[in-house]
Design goal:
Shape: elongated
Strand content: 25-35%
Distance between the termini: 9 Å
Radius of gyration: 17 Å
CATH class: Alpha Beta
Structural class: alpha+beta
Oligomer: single chain
Number of strands: 6
Number of helices: 2
CATH topology: Alpha-Beta Plaits
Order of helices and strands: EHEEEEHE
Length: 115
C-alpha cells in the first residue's frame, strides 16, 4: 500500500480529478496548500509597495492506493498536470510513500481491503 501526495496548481484540479477517475481511482482527498519552489525573484506591486510573494496557492491531493494502482495514479496525475503553455514553471510535485496500515472506521476492515 502507498500514499500518493500530489501538489498541483489550483487550475489543474479538475483535469487531474478526471484523469484519476479514468484510471479507476475515485477515492481522493483534496485540500488547499500554499508553498513556493525555487522561484523567488517574482515581484508584485501591492498597495503601491513592491512585494516578493512568499507563498503561492496550490492544491494538495492525497490518495491511498494498493500497489497495483501506484503507476496508473502517478501517470494520470503527470499527464493531466503537465503545463499547457510553453515555458511555464512550477508544475508541482508527486510524493509516493509507503503506507503501513489503513483501517476503515465504519467496518473495521484493515489493510488492502480498507482502501
Amino acid at each position: 500500500m502507498k500514499l500518493i501526495v500530489a501538489i498541483i496548481r489550483e487550475n489543474q484540479l479538475d483535469q487531474v480529478r478526471e484523469a484519476l477517475i479514468e484510471a479507476e481511482i475515485t477515492r481522493i482527498t483534496v485540500s488547499r496548500a500554499s508553498g513556493h519552489g525555487r522561484i523567488h525573484d517574482e515581484i508584485e506591486i501591492y498597495r503601491g509597495r513592491k512585494m516578493v510573494p512568499n507563498l503561492l496557492p496550490n492544491m494538495r491531493i492525497e490518495i491511498a492506493v494498493n500497489d497495483e494502482f501506484v503507476e496508473p495514479a502517478v501517470n494520470a496525475i503527470i499527464k493531466a498536470a503537465e503545463p499547457n503553455e510553453d515555458g511555464l514553471i512550477g508544475g508541482g510535485k508527486i510524493f509516493v510513500m509507503p503506507l503501513e496500515q489503513v483501517i476503515r472506521i465504519r467496518t473495521k476492515e484493515k489493510g488492502k481491503a480498507a482502501i
